[in-house]
Design a protein that fits this description.
The chain has 541 residues and is of the alpha/beta class. The protein contains 16 helices and 21 strands. It is globular, with a radius of gyration of 23 Å. Bound molecules: zinc ion. The site of zinc ion (ZN) has 4 residues, from loops.
């Protein structure tokens, strides 16, 4: 086959590499062959190339999100939107679900995504009694924006076997009425009840976001999730909660040619023994689909009020842990000894402490370099913990959009320390990596909403939360490209526009360095390229 050579020029080129700006880029097939002056690029490109005129637009490396849930994004996008401000109170919640149900087959479950009790006028969790107003003869289910909590109607409660005497499982709980009976609100590992007979049951290894569905719908979820990410300029992502359901679905999508995104997979810790048994490690896979690391859960969620904190939370004094501390540590240590990078969900300082102690013990028992063990979210560490994370080379992976979308609600719940939610300023001060991510669908894929939030620390309500944690624009852009690639050990192949890397790009309508800070939110992705192929064109521009 003949080589296909492209020469990109005629706009701003921001490489995120040593030299931030360059004049032109040569791509041969799926790889970046050369980056430099127009004159040099023309020489490298030879006589037979196609010129891609950027027409004044801006070429950047494709965005990389190191913490996403692709299939859950696709799934939630087909559910009713019950997030704020679409839904502001219980009446609107019921109406939104009813309307959504009208377009579904008669007995299909009516499901909604994204409620946040702190943003509901009633300031309480919906219950089965609320959802019974939607339907009493078919399942009704709504998922909290964090994925850590669901509410179901009485019909669904009964059909999945939650009754008066159902006890709380390890790592989870039920909301309860005045008599102590489950009231339809389900937290963390208790969501395994929703998996019914055929679904995945993570047990106390994580919240259940893997709703059972037909193979066709699971492929549709990949297609939908992927489309939203690619149209937002993302080219590589890390799916951080992979079970049998995700693995089988991604393999099928790869084989049918549906899969376009590069996906790094992090298996849920439930599978550690199987992974070891089979001898799989993080060199398995290729540029499109690869097995990367192990995902652990330490605590619950700040949004749903189940994070594990050492100080007094107004709502729940301690939140909770998914595992007994010793059990958690032994899983992390085993994974480390086997050579797997670990990604631990930890929000409260009590949970973050557990990760730090586990990594410390693991490195003591079996010193290994460059593991890049990660703390996902890392919402409320103490400053002293940030010091120790630096000493142990632990990577924090926060989500600036959560500051923007949920920051005020969290700050109201935890008090003064809420200023230091996702404390990028402390990470910067101590020299820790600065990485951006979305945890989509907790926040929708939107690189410039994330970058704007990281740079300003603005919230959607218009105040600044913790101004000392603002990043510079360059730090934020690198945090969603090259630094995100490093968080996945992928910096040799993606994350910057440099010779030898894969030709993955986003084309932006404007150069972010040339707009007012407030206008960062309006920057649009015009095109997305993966492996030297244009796979998305924004037709709205
Ligand atoms: Zn997540």
């Amino acid at each position: 086959m003949e080589d296909k050579t492209l020469l990109f020029t005629g706009g701003s080129i921001l490489t995120m590499g040593e030299e931030m700006t360059q004049e032109a880029v040569v791509v041969v097939n799926d790889q970046i062959k050369y980056v430099g002056s127009m004159e040099d690029c023309e020489k490298v490109a030879g006589s037979n190339y196609e010129k891609i005129d950027l027409e004044g637009k801006c070429l950047v490396p494709g965005f990389i999100d190191p913490h996403v849930h692709v299939m859950m994004l696709g799934m939630c996008n087909t559910w009713a939107d019950v997030s704020y401000p679409s839904v502001k109170n219980m009446d609107e919640l019921v109406t939104a679900l009813k309307q959504h149900g009208e377009n579904l087959p008669q007995d299909a479950p009516i499901r909604g995504f994204g409620f946040d009790k702190r943003q509901l006028e009633e300031k309480r969790y919906p219950t089965a009694a609320d959802l019974d107003k939607v339907a009493t003869d078919r399942p009704v289910q709504i998922m909290n924006g964090s994925g850590h909590c669901n509410v179901v109607n009485s019909y669904l409660m009964e059909s999945i076997g939650i009754g008066e005497n159902t006890a709380d499982p390890d790592g989870g709980s039920f909301g309860r009425n005045q008599y102590g009976h489950p009231n339809g609100t389900i937290f963390d590992s208790a969501n395994d009840y929703l998996a019914e007979k055929t679904g995945v049951k993570p047990g106390n290894h994580g919240p259940n976001i893997h709703m059972p569905d037909s193979d066709d719908n699971l492929q549709r979820n990949i297609a939908e999730g992927q489309k939203l990410l690619i149209s937002a300029g993302f080219t590589s992502v890390n799916d951080v909660q992979v079970t049998k359901q995700e693995m089988e679905s991604y393999l099928a999508a790869r084989d049918s040619g549906l899969l376009q995104l590069r996906i790094e997979l992090s298996y849920l810790s439930k599978y550690l023994e199987d992974i070891k048994e089979m001898g799989i490690n993080s060199t398995f896979g290729n540029d499109r689909l690869s097995m990367g690391s192990l995902k652990l859960y330490a605590d619950g969620s700040l949004i749903s009020g189940t994070a594990y904190m050492n100080y007094n939370d107004a709502e729940r004094s301690q939140g909770y842990l998914f595992h007994e501390p010793e059990e958690f540590k032994s899983i992390l240590i085993e994974a480390h000894k086997y050579g797997l990078q670990t990604l631990t969900h930890a929000q409260g300082d009590g949970a973050i402490e557990l990760v730090i102690q586990a990594v410390e013990a693991a490195q003591k028992e079996c010193p290994r370099e460059d593991m890049r063990h990660r703390v996902e979210h890392c919402g409320l560490p103490t400053k002293e913990q940030v010091d120790r994370m630096k000493a142990l080379s632990i990577w924090p992976i926060p989500q600036p959009q959560h500051v923007y979308l949920y920051g005020n609600g969290i700050a109201n719940a935890v008090g003064e320390i809420g200023e230091n939610f996702s404390p990028y300023g402390w990470f910067k001060e101590k020299g820790l990596p600065l990485v951006l991510s979305s945890d989509t669908p907790v926040a929708f894929p939107n690189a410039f909403e994330a970058i704007y939030a990281a740079v300003t620390r603005d919230t959607a309500q218009g105040n600044v939360l913790g101004g000392l944690h603002q990043l510079t624009l360059e730090e934020a852009l690198k945090g969603y490209t090259i630094e995100a690639a490093k968080a996945m050990h992928k910096e040799k192949t993606v994350g910057s526009i440099e010779t030898g890397k894969l030709a993955d790009f986003a084309v932006l309508d404007k150069n972010p360095f040339e707009v007012e800070e407030k206008d960062l939110l309006d920057i649009e992705v015009v095109e997305t390229w993966i492996s030297g192929e244009k796979i998305f064109t924004n037709t709205n521009i």
